[in-house]
Each structure stands twice: as structure tokens, then as C-alpha cells.
Fold this sequence. Notes:
Elements: H1 5-30, H2 40-57, H3 62-85, H4 92-108, H5 112-127, H6 129-138, H7 141-160, H8 174-198, H9 203-213, H10 215-228, H11 233-258, H12 260-285, H13 303-327, H14 329-339, H15 345-357, H16 362-388, H17 390-416
Amino acid sequence: xxxxxxxxxxxxxxxxxxxxxxxxxxxxxxxxxxxxxxxxxxxxxxxxxxxxxxxxxxxxxxxxxxxxxxxxxxxxxxxxxxxxxxxxxxxxxxxxxxxxxxxxxxxxxxxxxxxxxxxxxxxxxxxxxxxxxxxxxxxxxxxxxxxxxxxxxxxxxxxxxxxxxxxxxxxxxxxxxxxxxxxxxxxxxxxxxxxxxxxxxxxxxxxxxxxxxxxxxxxxxxxxxxxxxxxxxxxxxxxxxxxxxxxxxxxxxxxxxxxxxxxxxxxxxxxxxxxxxxxxxxxxxxxxxxxxxxxxxxxxxxxxxxxxxxxxxxxxxxxxxxxxxxxxxxxxxxxxxxxxxxxxxxxxxxxxxxxxxxxxxxxxxxxxxxxxxxxxxxxxxxxxxxxxxxxxxxxxxxxxxxxxxxxxxxxxxxxxx
Length: 417
């Protein structure tokens, strides 16, 4: 029987070229170009030629290199002629042509699946031009800087940090702490871009979307809306409760990442609290349609908050180890209540990570997380009362009381069963 694999590889090489070339052909038609350097047929032939070079060259890359040099010379000459006739001409098509040749050669040399995936990726990148141009025209400098900072802390800084314990009880692991900083920053970044992409359509959506980034910042902002008359007391209360409902969801996500054994214990309490919180939001909102108010979240990727969170996380990690070592579970619970006044994420990450590593009993970590969350919710209820006023504060306090009662009931059911 004849070996048909070579025919298949050549067909894949040509198909890769046709796919990329068809995208270029369509793009040229969209721009109403009468003449173009290369279209679907040229790209298909280039992919086929690359496949032939890969087959005929065998294990030696010499023939592929010679073919690439010839194609590159032809491409450069064509680009030079077009650039003279039309100054400012881009070189995307020419670069894609060289890539198509190499993908064809790769397909013929036995890596057909990788070559096919590469061809699809090239076509996707080429098709992204309108979206890239839109973002380039609408992005602000601070947003670009924020994205660069996020890439820096996740791609550059993280791999350089040592993966070892330091300090009291070896509680400070730089890489683990920074991984959690990246996780929290990523959640905040996602919340910011949701607001950027979809806008703020009412105080309720402000609470939901803003709560992804920071429930504390959202509570402050929505409370100011009420105080300044931009939202009614009922709508503001719904927005505040919605923001803290997202906080409960964030606790579940964080525990799912760093301490699934703790999540397995606390999920009934979190689910009960979330269900009552969602019902409270629905009752408070009652289908009202307020004029949308813009949430001023600022830039979620400023370097100073990330560094502050890393320092705070390190403090909580040491304090929880020392507290539990010196005073047992009661010491950890005290740490949870105090740190929960400012932030619940740090305690959640620390206790969940220690429980996952076996350094802390899962049920003790679960109680600590719930205490921190309760402490945080009480503080934000008082914050709403102080900023938004008595009417909104009472509605938020009532909803929070129901949420805390539901969470406590869910926890009692788990412990009793």
C-alpha cells in the first residue's frame, strides 16, 4: 500500500496557506484594494511549496532555508515596490507569507497538528486588526501602564522569587505570597475591565461589578451616591448588599484555589449567606430603574496597593502562625476578627493555604474565614450607616443581619450533621 501520509501533509500545508490567504483576500476586499501582493491562491501555493521543501529536504533543513531565502527575497522586493507607490504601507501580509511557508514546511516534516494550530492562530491574529485598532484608540495611558504592571508582577517578578520559608515558623514564603498577590490583582483587574467594557447601568450593576474589584471601595462609592442624591436610599442599599454578595463569592473562589478542603466545610454557610443576600438585593431593588451613576474605582493595578497587600498578607501569615502556636485556635480566631476589619482576602488566603498544606486543621481555618467575613461585613454596615445616612444604613444593617444569621445557620447545620 502506498504511504499516503505525505499527501496528507502536503494537503494540510496547502490548506494552511489557503486559510491565511483567504483572510488576507477578504481584508483586501474590505479595504477596496484593487491590487494586492498576495491572496488566497498565492498563500496556498506558498504553503504547498513549503511542504514540498520540507519533504524533499528530508532531515536536512538546507532546502527549507534556501526556499525561505528565495521567498523572503521575492517578498522584500514586492514590499519595496508597494511601499514606494503607497508610503506608510504595512508589512503584515508579507510577514504572514513567510510564516505560511514555514508552517507548510513544518506540516510536511511530521508536525502537522502543530502547523495547523499555528495556521489558525495566524488567521486569528490577522483578523484581530479592527479590535486592536479600536483598543489602541480608546485605551488610556494609565490602563496600558496597569496592564504592563500586571504582566510585570506575574511574568517577571513571580519566577524570580525564592520558593522557601523565611521568618518565624517559616511562615513567609515569597513566591507563595506573590502568587496570591497576582491572584487578587487579577480579580481586581477583571472587575475594572468589566466596568470599562460594559459601563455602569444603575447602582445595582455598580455594586455587582464593583464588588468584583473591591467591595469596600464599592460600599464607599455607593454610599456617597446616596449622600449626594445620585441614588435613592433603597437603590443604594441594594448596591451595597450586592457588592458584599460578590465578596462572599470571592471567598469561595479563593478557597477553591488555595484550600479546597476548607471550602468543602464552609460552602453551606457561604451558600446560605449568598442566597439570603441575593434575596435581600431583590427585595431592596424591587425592579426600580435608577439613573446610572459612574463608579470611580480608579486603576486597580497601581503598584503601591499591590505591595501593601503583599506586606499585609505577610503580616497575617506570621500573625496567624504565631497566634495559633501560642494560643491555639483562639489566637487564630482573634487574628481573623482583627484583620477582617480591614480585609478578608488576606486571612482567607492564609488560612486556606495553611489548611491545604496540613499546617492547620481545616475546621479551624473554616471558622477563622467565617469570622473574618463576619467582621468585614459588620464594618461595612457601619460605614454605610455613617456615610449614606440612617435610612440606607438601617436597610443595609437589616440585610446584613439576615445574611449573617443565614451563614451561622448553615454553619450550625454542618457542625451538627
